[in-house]
Each structure stands twice: as structure tokens, then as C-alpha cells.
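Annual report, structural modelling task.

Input specification for the S-adenosyl-L-homocysteine complex:
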Amino acid sequence: MNSIELAGVGMTSQRTRERLIQRLIDQGIANQAVLDVIRMTPRHIFLDEALSHKAYEDTALPIGYSQTLSRPYIVARMTEILLSAGPLKKVLEIGTGSGYQTTILSQLVDEVCTVERIDPLLRKAKDRFRKLGLNNITAELSDGSFGWDKHAPYDGIITTAAPQAIPEGLLRQMAPDGILVIPVGNGQSQDLRVLKRVGDSSEFDEEIVEKVMFVPLLGGLSR
Ligand code: SAH
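The model returned the following structure:
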């Protein structure tokens, strides 16, 4: 685990942050490491200034280009599920967006690879990683519908945009006993699904966790 000290940034909202943590606990988030990392990570720097006063509310918030930063509960939940597979070395995130989920992950696993299809969002996110001194993140402009072959296999894969069906490539890029956490569905109904690869076989145990609502996983790049 890379323990970085982010608490100094935006100490002013410490009480509001504590309230958010309590809310996450009340909603069933139990992994202490996840709660600690969310507590220490300034969410407001991932938002435009006009929205930063809402940063520690448990709501999804717009980040431009019709995209959203997921609500803290769902970030916590997906991260907690991912970590339930045991200590993870390499994780792939599809949909960097603001870089908030990436930043949370980077403090809990050895290495995070992340892809985003909208260039201006990726640039801003990379800038934030640099400012926060996070040096275990590899981020690239790429269509994550195919995963990211270059750095595969991954012990964990997390998708923060919803495809209508699970992309084949993601299954192929999972390490033995690897885990995939992915929202699947359309604009009306989505399920958060968890797939665990059984050893090094091509079998997967699958579980539906809860109803969710993510932006769609789209093909192609946007510069
Ligand atoms: N994890 C982000 C959530 C951003 S919303 C955060 O913490 O802010 C989901 C993101 O997925 C959007 O930025 C969207 O552009 C991106 N996305 C959608 N389809 C994609 C694809 N095929 N490949 C890569 N990124 C994609």
C-alpha cells in the first residue's frame, strides 16, 4: 500500500469529511483502509471550483463533457469489493474521468493503470496525479471497451462507465483469481456485477451486487 499524506490539502472541510465517512459507515462500508483513504483524500480538487462546496456530500457531481464523478458511496463500495479479492498488485480502471477513483485506488494497491476516452478529462486528471505526487498511476487516452492489453494481466479491473454487456477483452485480461467489478446495463437499468476468475481457468463466478446508474461506456476517442 502506498500511504500518501493528503490531509494537508483542504483541511478546512475536515468536519464535513468526517460526516461523509460516518454516512459511508451507516451505509455498510466496513473496510477501514478504504474509509481512511477516502477520509484523507481531498475530493474537492477533482471538481470545478463552482462545485467544490458540494465535494463532501454523498452525491454524484458533473465533471464536464456530460460525465460525472461517482458518489462517494459507490466509489467506496466498488473499491471495497475489489479489495475483497485480497491484496492487489495491478489494477485496471476504465473511465479515469476526474481521477478521483484512480486516486483512491492508487493508495490501496501497488499499481493502477487507467484509460479515458475524453482527452481534456484525461489531461486534467493526470495533472492532479502529478500535483498529488502519485507515482504508481499509468494513464492513457484509449478506448477501454477493449481493456488495456499492454499492461495485462490485471489482478483487478474496475469499470466506471456501463457497457450493455461485459466486453470479452476484460475477461481475457484478468489474472488468475482476478476480480472484475463492472456496472452493466442501459440508461434505464444497470446492475453492479462482480466476476471472479476461477484460478487460471476460463470460468468465472458471477454475482450481482446492487442496482446502480453510471454513464454509458462509449466507443472511440474524443479529443
Ligand atoms: N472514475 C471516474 C468516473 C468518471 S465517469 C471518476 O472518479 O471521476 C466515467 C468515465 O468513463 C467518463 O469520463 C467517460 O468519458 C469514461 N468512458 C466512457 N466510455 C469509455 C471507454 N470506452 N473507454 C475509456 N473511458 C470511457
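The chain has six helices and nine strands.
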